[in-house]
Amino acid sequence: MHNSHLSIVLGFALLLLTSASKAEPAKQTARYSLQSPDQQLALQLEVKPEGLFYSVNYAGRPVVMPSRLGLKIKGQAALGSGLKVVQTREREYNQDWQQPWGEQQTINEHYRELRVELAETGAKPRQLTLAIRAFNDGIGLRYEVPAQANLQEFVIEDELTEFVLAENSHTWWLPAYRNWGPEYQYLRSALSSVDVAFTPITLEARHYALAIHEAALVNYASMTLRLVNDNTKTLKVDLVPWPNGDKVRTAAPMQSPWRTIQVAPKAIDLLNSHLTLNLNEAPAPENLKADNSYIKPGKYMGIWWEMHIGEKDWSPGPKQGATTARAKEYIDFAAQHDISGILIEGWNKGWEGEWWQRKPTFIFDKPVDGLDLEEVTRYARDKGVEIIGHHETAAGVTYYEQQMDAAFGYYEKLGIHSVKMGYVGTRIDGDQWHHGQYMVNHFQRVVDTAARHKVMVNAHETVTDTGLRRTYPNLMTRECVRGMEYNGGSPDTGNMPDHTTIIPFTRGLSGPIDFTPGIFNFDYKKHRPYNRVPSTLANQLALYVVIYSPLQMVADLPENYAGHPAFQFIDDVPTDWKQSRALQGEIGEYLVIARQDKHSPDWYLGAITNQDARKLEVKLDFLAPKARYEAQIYRDGKDADWETNPEAYEIKRINVTAKSTLELDLKPGGGTAVRFKQR
Amino acid sequence: MHNSHLSIVLGFALLLLTSASKAEPAKQTARYSLQSPDQQLALQLEVKPEGLFYSVNYAGRPVVMPSRLGLKIKGQAALGSGLKVVQTREREYNQDWQQPWGEQQTINEHYRELRVELAETGAKPRQLTLAIRAFNDGIGLRYEVPAQANLQEFVIEDELTEFVLAENSHTWWLPAYRNWGPEYQYLRSALSSVDVAFTPITLEARHYALAIHEAALVNYASMTLRLVNDNTKTLKVDLVPWPNGDKVRTAAPMQSPWRTIQVAPKAIDLLNSHLTLNLNEAPAPENLKADNSYIKPGKYMGIWWEMHIGEKDWSPGPKQGATTARAKEYIDFAAQHDISGILIEGWNKGWEGEWWQRKPTFIFDKPVDGLDLEEVTRYARDKGVEIIGHHETAAGVTYYEQQMDAAFGYYEKLGIHSVKMGYVGTRIDGDQWHHGQYMVNHFQRVVDTAARHKVMVNAHETVTDTGLRRTYPNLMTRECVRGMEYNGGSPDTGNMPDHTTIIPFTRGLSGPIDFTPGIFNFDYKKHRPYNRVPSTLANQLALYVVIYSPLQMVADLPENYAGHPAFQFIDDVPTDWKQSRALQGEIGEYLVIARQDKHSPDWYLGAITNQDARKLEVKLDFLAPKARYEAQIYRDGKDADWETNPEAYEIKRINVTAKSTLELDLKPGGGTAVRFKQR
After folding, report:
1. Is B532 helix (H, G, I), strand (E, B) or coil?
2. CA distance B181 to chain A (A)
3. Per CB distance under 8 Å, which residues of B are interface residues toward A?
4. What ipTM score was computed for the predicted complex, to two decimals?
5. What is the pLDDT of residues A543-559, one digit of tens each?
6. The whole model's pTM is what?
């Protein structure tokens, strides 16, 4: 099924076939270069007897110095040296495409491509093709191993790809191979102090910003980046292994994910790039023909936060959260507002006791005593609301896969079209990393199975996003971040106030984040005396714009929203956008983003700051030139402060046009949320 | 010899002997509290049946939540639970003491102390004493194991001390257990993202700053701090082990180093604390009677930077740096300036080839061919300059110790009174960490042997400073930081411009740093095309004030200083101070420090910034109230910039008094250095 990826060149015009240097002698260096359409980015490839090397320049400055490429095949010599160039092809592609849903409806895909087909010169030569694409906003590069006599089934023992960065830059990174995947707060250090990091990794050099990540991760291991030789500027790909050390078990023909380098003048510009999506394939034609009407962005609430703040339990018993009566309270609230889904965690059998510490016992088609799921689903449907399913696996993938098809079939039968997945645990099936090929392939099966049963996927603790939502439009959003839950129920550490000003510049570059904003009640000390939501109420509102997710949780309890004037913003804010613009921001300091509703002329703006108060001026030139708008402003109150007075906010209405400038006054941990309603 | 530490209570007034609760039943919690003299800091100790716990408050806010204390003895139960209180003693001590040399001549030592003598309640009871001191600027806490029948020779398998921090703060830290000790650029992250860190570790909470470190590390392993249970706020002591996992091999009576918690309103205030020194002992009386006239702070130059920038080699051969002629050039320059010592790296036999990659072959009393050390020493002496010895061990301690006494004897004979040590390598003797007990004890032997031969010690790649210079006044300075050398010869990464604005707040809290400032020639691209000194010339001058070291290198080549007007500041700046004041600063941003010369009424000021230009106002109220001064100002030129124009500087002279305000205009990577010469 994933061979649909091999169709990626279909429909592209072959603009240029270079005079192929077919008899390239292996004893000399062959050089090829590729420029982005705007000529600001330039990649040079060197095929040397001792190996393949690439380098990247941006606006005339070196960004990546000559860096090795290649694959180490288990039991064989490295595939990357002693190669001759068989053929090169170059072409340019430029076309707009439409997202069925997303942060930007129309995306321009414009790149120049260089394909270099290589073959070894010795006995039993093996073949390798490099595909390189240069966009104005970054580079993509991948390995393709064509079908061939001398390389059929094989194991990739190591991917040799390096990134020899030209500058020792400030680097924002998350360590890989810790217990909780990417659920940490980001580290900032010199590049030379990195150890081994997840991607995206974001670097701020003096004259440009860049982010390294991957696109279209299918049937391969996730990429992490390890500093080579301690204290250098060289990052090397470190694929997340199988328990025996294998990195990728595969067979020709195959291709690696794209290795991507986003480059922009400033970090804020990285947020306006669509490189990752552009390096994923369009959906297969049969998928496009299918009935995808079940795929709908929207807001959801759920029985969830009350567990995190210790009011309720996931487990059956006196504090059981999942009950018919409580679910109906959520449904009643949702029905009165623009909330399309209700999640019920702990809805099924098998949550008894410390479920995250043992082999999983969940039963995925049997509701827990006390919750009548059929009744709840019917009640919801009658009120125009849908129930959201929940599959917590406790990282037991083998156990889950035995029930998976039946589980999604059960939801399909009930008319449930959305599921939240969870893989809570330090290892998958006891000995697999959450980011290895084993989990990559499992999660692909989840997405495919869900699609067959017409279910949207919102996955927590799963593999990193690499833009596959373009190809699989039911793959809506995922967590893969230290989310709101840490401010509630984590044993003793909440997120710091700067956390939400960092993640859009890092984790956010990979795709939608189910961060679950919207906490209005900051006093939940009864069970969590040392935890806090480190933001003001206006900051919580702004997160609905700042952090993109097509499924956006409205995370607090209905009784904390009921009658609250500020809830109007959550009611109004869309989850599907015509266009998005990251306007201002510095990593870890502040961020201002504007987005236009897909279904109206209205714009929305979110602005957040870290622990420091700050004033900002925002030009409203993104608004339609001749239109008039009412700006409905939800901002921090005069004495608002995440620590001492988080609830203080005020609502102000002013008339503005595209020529106006908005003055923002953000308090510590604060924010501003604005709806620009066209008049 | 180190038993001199046990004399620490001598000379103290025993102010208070609490009514000892001798029959304390072990089944109840016994609580004790101790306040700092100004009552801002409060420590509470709880002796519970299940263990010992302490907590710390500052200005009424929790800083450390109840945190475990105790020692795990190999082959025995943990020493820390099931204890009864045998006796408690409380006292207050308040006395000034004089440093023979230092950043501050007179230091006030004022603390309240609580000693809690504990004994187990079961059969074969063991005894443990906790000593706790509360100063206005921090807490010290240590374990004492008195001589006893049931605990004689023993191995500490684990020290149980925890620091359960009350807030998830911004933390500046260096990872421990990497290859190059503390020679990395600092990481900044949430506390909850720390892995395992060297000390000092510096935390910035909203309402206070704190640093955790240790004092008086003798015959014990260095402390690192490991985050307990990933993603928490709890740091636990992780002692650097012997190869077999033992932490400390010891015998009663013994005592641990002090575990120290510095607390202050802001990070800048941490720099004005003398907690670490105050928790070290005064020199033993016999040491004070000795002729210590050889111990003299001063500036030194040396054949060193030319190796780092690739002009010369440490090894014999055509690029050999250590030659008689070159040494005399340095001596000639030093003789004309206030430079008291000349270092000659590679002076001895055994540096051939890749010396850092093999077992050491150095001979410590045989000069290399081409260098006549006797002649050079005589030539220097005639000109009033001293040669500084050099012992590079390439981390071969066993090999070095065989020659150590003879090596220092050789220097003593030549009249050499200062030695720079080096332990370049990833492990000591192949399998020992640089920070384990093995190295701690070796380095103590070095200091003792050096003292016996009247030699001052400046050690690189050695154990962390814990304030032992108070007890051993020939222990002058050490590196233990990513120094200037990384801007020259490290394979490919220099320090970033913010590095020097971080290290005084972190590494600098432990003691003097031989950072080796003073580079004037920023163009050394011939051999190091990708390396840079990331600062302006004025910043280099300011470092002589900002970074304290009693032996301060003048690191560039004499020909790069000759005739340079800005060298006057280096000539003038002292290395021994009457008093020091950290005036302004934020970690990683900027720092302004003023120090008064010990031997004149003059003051000096150093101000540095990171990559960002900034303007600062400095009140000169540290100057003597009625005196008049000429401020000799060395500042960045109008277009100065570490990257594009590092040499641009200007010298300005203005008259000022204690009522004046100095306006600083720091350029990117820039600085200002000022001498306030009393008129």
Report:
1. coil
2. 11
3. 166, 168-170, 175, 178-180, 183-193, 195, 206, 229-234, 486, 490-496, 499, 530, 611, 643
4. 0.93
5. 999 999 999 999 999 99
6. 0.94
